Queue: 2 jobs
Job 1
Amino acid sequence: MNDFLAQIPIFLVFIPVVFSIIIYLFKAKWTTYLSFVSQVLLLIAFFAYLSFWRLHPGDHLLVFGGWSERIGISFFHDGLSLTFSFLAIFIFSVILMYLFKFRRKDHKFFFFFLFLEGIFLGMIQTNDLFNMFVFLELTTVLVTVLISYQKSGPSFQAGIYYLLLNTVGALFFLIGIVFLYNVFGTINIRVLQELIGTQGDRTVVKFAYVIMMSGISVKAALFPLFTWLPKAHGVAQSGISALLSGLVVKGALYVLIRMERFLFVEAGFHMNELFFWIGVVTAIVGVTFAISQKDMKQILAYHTVSQVGIMMMGISQIGLTPFYGGVLHIINHALFKSLLFLGAGILIKHYQTKKVYEIKGALKTFPIVAVMLIIAMLSISGAPLFNGFVSKSMIKYAVKGNFIKEALFFLINLGTVTSFIKFSSVLFGPKAILVKEKNPLQIISIIVLGLSCLGIGLFYQVIASSIFGITISTNLWEISHFLDYGLFLVIGFLFYRFVVKKDYLPFQKIRHFKLTFESANYMFVVYLLVVLGVVFL
Amino acid sequence: MIRRVSLVVMLVIIFGFFVFSILDLEAFFSTFGKDYFFENGLSETGSVNLVTGIYLDYRLFDSLFEAGLLIAAVSGVTWISQHEITEKNATFMLDRQSTPTLFVTFSRLVYPFMLMFGIYVILFGHVSPGGGFQGGAIVATAILILYYIDVQKATSIDKILTIEKILFLTIIGVGSISFFTKGTFFTNPFDLSASEQVKAIYLITLNALIGIKVALGLVAIFTAFLKEGR
């Protein structure tokens, strides 16, 4: 029995893949309902494995084919990978509920959607660098198809832009793998971790590190490589946007963590500062763009960029409190950003527009959706009692004691609050007269997300200790937190009222700023050179 | 102009770092993987062609998803290039006037040999250079020559895609048989001490399945592009 339980990670990959093909092959009416069966089976398999893991805690290694670890492909499980696996299954289930009514008769869509789920779960679990590359490529191809699923001109453009830019990144990742294999004769991450520890200070290893990190940075949408993200969000459907922001970007961050925290951790490159500053710049640039946008989805898309920056600020501090804060922020962001996209999607669909200033009165017209959006906005701007607060205050440890860093962190928070005050203008105003579509599954999906935001915000101590085994000593009910947040709101509102709303020329300039594919590649070369310089000099 | 110059300068610097790092490789490398495959490859996988041994046995899991990559790409391309107009053949692309008779004649001559060569590469992938992926590409090329020979030929992409997906499921199934015989996924189901001939059964089956799948996938992509390039 234990033998079988240990093999469950394989099923986590193949259940959705096999179901996706079955749905594609049998084009009867009822087959799309099988996608729910697949989700239920996945959850059962996951919890069976989780209970097995609880009995035998620690690092689980599953080598395929019974070969030695250095030769064969293996899956690897620790607390982090299990958390991400559950997050992936959860977000996919919620988005499936959201999309289901609209896509009920579209078998091909379910094929791409479920196939992506299986691939994503594989990418999280794998312990083999080349296998990771294969999964990265597959996600790129599948996400491209999902982005350009509308089959219109702009969506093709955005899809190809995404495909090409991410392929460039993935190829650099591959070159890095070639180097490592040549040097160490294996591509197993755990084995490599030990080997790099003994002889890491070699130029080849450093070069491999640089190009692998740069390659994966494209997928993680770090500055200045994030340009594909707003383009893709501009054309993708809301459900797909939620998937992209909520999960696919997080997959790249997860790979980054695996590289930084596991593969190269023993080499002692000490790149904490570099990635911290990349995170800061990403956050500031993202939030500046977000403030200037008028399109609802573009605001949210640029916010993903800025939040990725905040996560990087946390993740870069390996092994310290901010690192766990960063990981927790990844989870929280997956929840509230999907919620924002899904809620915005419902509004966009009914109001038939994406413009923030043209949508009015959501609070009276769609009370449930509006309440959930408020929860998400409070979470993302870091209000106490909501989940964003906990992770942000953990990341704050990274800036303590340094005045410039503290000021920058303050600015980022202020920008976030301001742009969501702008976003919240959709809530107020008179009731709009619209034809409402009944879709209980959609409502359930956003309520589930909203409740989980609240749940993590209130019970973060239990969650943090069960995932990371650490205790957080923040007191939620301290009055100063609320005062701080109130201050942010006031300054943010003033800033919005007297600066942002006037729509001065710089904002218009920023709003219409577009980066061509050529420039994006140029930026990639610059980025590569900067990382090279910092690592080698 | 400044941008181009600066780009060239930066690329030269990166290339310099690259060369500088490569120099390190002369003294600092490991032949662990190579040695292992040379010593144990034949006895463990039963494949004389070690590449086949690696992709059908040691790293079968990767090969499954490389096949999966092809499936995703083919489905994506056909989905994107699907049009409302139903055209069953490629007449709009090639008509008899523009295809020289000499070319058609030679295509007819070459066709059977190419097909046979492709099938040979697939089936003998475990003893000589080749395998499912390579042979599949050759077979696909042979089939595509048919477009020159018979312009009226109709190909139903949907049918091809269906067969391709069934084949993918079959490949996963064949790969999983070893769980029931050995208790571990994705390896040769026959015992490690079995003779080469017995192990070859598994290798040939998988190579053939992968070969057909790859050939169908490439034909489907090409047909989709033909319809697109109207």
Job 2
Amino acid sequence: MLILHCPYCGVDADETDLHAGGQAHLKREGPGSSDEDFEDYLFLRANPKGVHFERWRHVYGCGKWFHAARCTATLQVFGTYPAQTLEPPQDIKDKIADARPGWSWGDKE
Amino acid sequence: MKRYSAFAIAREAMRQHTGWDRAWAKREPKMKYDVIIVGAGGHGLATAYYLGKNFGITNVAILEKGWLGGGNTGRNTTIIRSNYLQDPSAAIYEKARSLYETMSQDLNYNVMFSPRGVIMLAQTQHEIRGYQRTAQANALQGVKTEWIGPQRVKELCPIMNIDGPRYPVLGGLYQERGGTARHDAVAWGYARACSDMGMDVIQKCEVTGVRQENGKVVGVDTSKGPIDCDKLGMVVAGHASVLAQKAGFRLPIESVALQALVSEPIKPCMDVVVMANTVHGYMSQSDKGEMVIGGGTDGFNNYTQRGSFHHIEETVRALVETFPMISRLKMLRQWGGIVDVTGDRSPILSKTPVEGVFVNCGWGTGGFKAIPGSGWAMAELMAKGQSPLTDEFSMYRFREGKFIDESVAAGVAH
């Protein structure tokens, strides 16, 4: 079972206490954006076989959304962090770069 | 190719079965093909087969990273039905179901199509209205389904408890000519027929890159070296996003794990397929006597072909209420496959931003039933550049808002 650390309430939560919310760090589009931008925001997903940044909600806990960095090919979890950010904290980025040589935040897509 | 027949069995029985040919030839890739299909699962092989049969295109290679039919073709619960709500879905799924009726004769390979009937249970008021609506839509589409009451459900499937405390059976959507087929045989039968037409089925050959010149595909790089082609068909299900990235475009797809399990074999007790979408469970009995059970998907992106065990528990727990007799059954095996899910739960059969590259993916949790129809339509799309069966399934429909919304209509399970 997948176990993720909730960065708000500090609990190591089982997958059954959580709800997966898909890709994180999407750029929200608004009035004036093109159809292509909206398609990107609403439907197109990175869906990588590898490191994935994703949203999770601690539904049977504090109820808050947080982010996780997780590998979809091995299920390894690199870390979780609060959702109020545009990119993951440096220590998680460093941890991924150590484990996956050649990886960098810029080419996450 | 020697034909399979009752006479052939008798002949081989007389000479210790020394005369059987290989079902399909083991070949190394040539330098160039007219068409390369990536993915030797059911959909890829069916595409190649109908390219040859309907359009005479036989200079074709089917490349497979693993082994033939080893992905979702060999991992599904083999259910065949076509009771979808939307017209484009009904057209392609009914095409597929009708091709299953004659597939064994067409391929000269016994795919054990068993039109034993499929019941989709209505266990909430919403489902009653939904399935009655689907039955009406199917009548207009020419797909034979009917709405049946709880007593008829009980007659068709006596082991069912229709008075469950949480989820009583309130009726069902019944498709008499739905059923099951032997999933491996579908892949093997198509592979044998493709090989017989001179196509090369090449296993353990991973595509590592898509070579392009001026926005047009010219070939692929593989673990067995570069191969040139005029047209490329990507039919790789759960890995569609990975392959699309190699070709330089993105797809509206997320890959998640879907699980199934089988029980120990028991005596025949159930001769229909039953789907209970409210509780995310579906069940049928295989010819070996195992109860074949499918469940829901995990919610998170996953490429591991393993799912979360709690989904198995949830599925079985829910089914026990409706099928009390399975409560003492031992479960023998459990497995997972990676399914490619789109936003509207309908597939993508489409041209792509790269000229000469076509994509067939997004069948999500319900691809097996569609294999022959998908191959038929994809072959027409690749050969002629257009097919009436694929017009609505473009990868650009999301940008245009032209969804084929089966996520609400068909429930979650497929």
